[in-house]
Amino acid sequence: VKKKGKNGYQYFSNELVKKLQEKIELEGDLRKAIAKNELLLHYQPQIRTSDNSMVGIEALVRWNHPTKGIISPGVFIPIAEETGLINDIGTWVLREACAQMRQWHDEGGPLIPISVNLSSQQFHQPHLAEYIMSILQETGLEPQYLELEITESMMMDATVSTGILNKLNEHGIRISLDDFGTGYSSLSYLKMFPIHKVKIDRSFIRDITQNNNDKAIVATIIAMAQHLNMEVIAEGIETKDQLDILTDKDCGKIQGYYFSKPLSADDVEEAFFVPGRA
Ligand code: C2E
Ligand code: CA
Ligand code: CA
Ligand code: CA
Fold first, then answer.
1. How far apart are CA 234 and CA 202, in angstroms?
2. CA diameter of the chain
């Protein structure tokens, strides 16, 4: 328990100093993490509910820290963005994800796209399309098997994003709108930009069995996506009851713990590849 008075404040400020030191230390470690081969990808299947088949898979980065163990992207991606390390990390993720998908294709795995999360800084880097094309060339993955997950807030500057997205689209790369409904949603974006898929954010799914507003919002997003000829997927499905509502609302694709947590590459092969084919 913190005490008031001089010592209390002293204690508090020591805490702050300690936190800051930890963050600086983590930054330094993160700088070396790529070279030390400490980053790894997990993969979460995207499932078509009519036949439980895997129709896509999302790459999610983790950091295996030498003393702290596995650190989640929610902790180190913000640090990477602050320090500019996100560009190197993002490049590593893209290359690793594309190489893994190409290998799975070669081994007779399903011909599905891999989804990769892009940060805002990556999205706005010059020559993004050319740079991604060079990674595809290097790894041998065809462009239609790469799906980039971006968020609505990245597209605030409509003229800039139109240019970037049209270029990616011309190359055959797919675009998915992540966390849909949580950002600066503008329906005009959906009309303006070449978007292949809309991902309904988990915050609308969490209470969907009790909350009629969430249910209505989700039903509306699904109907809208269908009218605009976009794919729609719901994320964060954890229970059968949630799944039943989504199925009832005609959402054919879902991602969430109910079907699978993010898995290591080996576990993906074991759980989802047809035996004998890989
Ligand atoms: P996101 O892109 O929205 O990814 C979904 C997150 O929800 C993942 O957390 C995933 O493990 C988690 N999740 C999936 N299904 C369920 C479920 O049924 N219930 C619950 N409670 N959670 C579920 P993760 O892997 O910790 O990633 C967190 C965020 O970090 C991601 O959110 C994404 O914004 C960011 N991130 C992850 N990998 C990368 C990356 O390679 N690059 C960038 N720029 N960001 C990344
Ligand atoms: Ca995502
Ligand atoms: Ca998301
Ligand atoms: Ca393998």
1. 7
2. 70
Please answer whether residues 248 and 222 qualify as being in contact, where contact means their C-beta atoms are separated by less than 8 angstroms: no
Confidence of residue 187 (pLDDT cuts 50, 70, 90): confident
Compute the distance from residue 2 Cα to the ligand 3 centre, in Å: 38
Nearest to 181 by CA among 153, 200, 158: 200
> Tens of pLDDT along 161-172?
899 999 999 999
DSSP assignment string, 107-175: TT-----EEEE--HHHHTSTTHHHHHHHHHHHHT--GGGEEEEEEGGGGSSHHHHHHHHHHHHHTT-EE
User: What does R_g of the chain's alpha carbons equal in angstroms?
Assistant: 21
Q: Let me know: does 187 contact 167? Beta carbons within 8 Å.
A: no
Compute the C-alpha angle 69/117/109, nearest 5°. 85
User: Do 118 and 150 meet the contact criterion of CB atoms below 8 Å apart?
Assistant: yes
Q: Which DSSP string do the residues of 242-267 spell out, in sequence order?
A: HHHHHHHTT--EEESTTT---B-HHH
Is the pLDDT confidence value at 79 over 80? yes
Using a CB cutoff of 5 Å, list residues around ligand 2, an ion: 117, 149, 178
Q: Which ligand is nearest to the CA of 101?
A: 4
* Ligand 1 site-directed mutation target among 39, 46, 58, 60, most atoms within 8 Å of CB: 60
Atom index in ligand 1 nearest the CA of residue 258 equals 18
29 within 8 A of 85, measured Cβ to Cβ = no
Threshold 0.90, pTM exceeds: yes
ipTM of the complex: 0.98
| Token code pair at residue 175 | 């675009």
d(CA 239, CA 259): 9
CA atoms within 13 A on the CB side of 87: 10
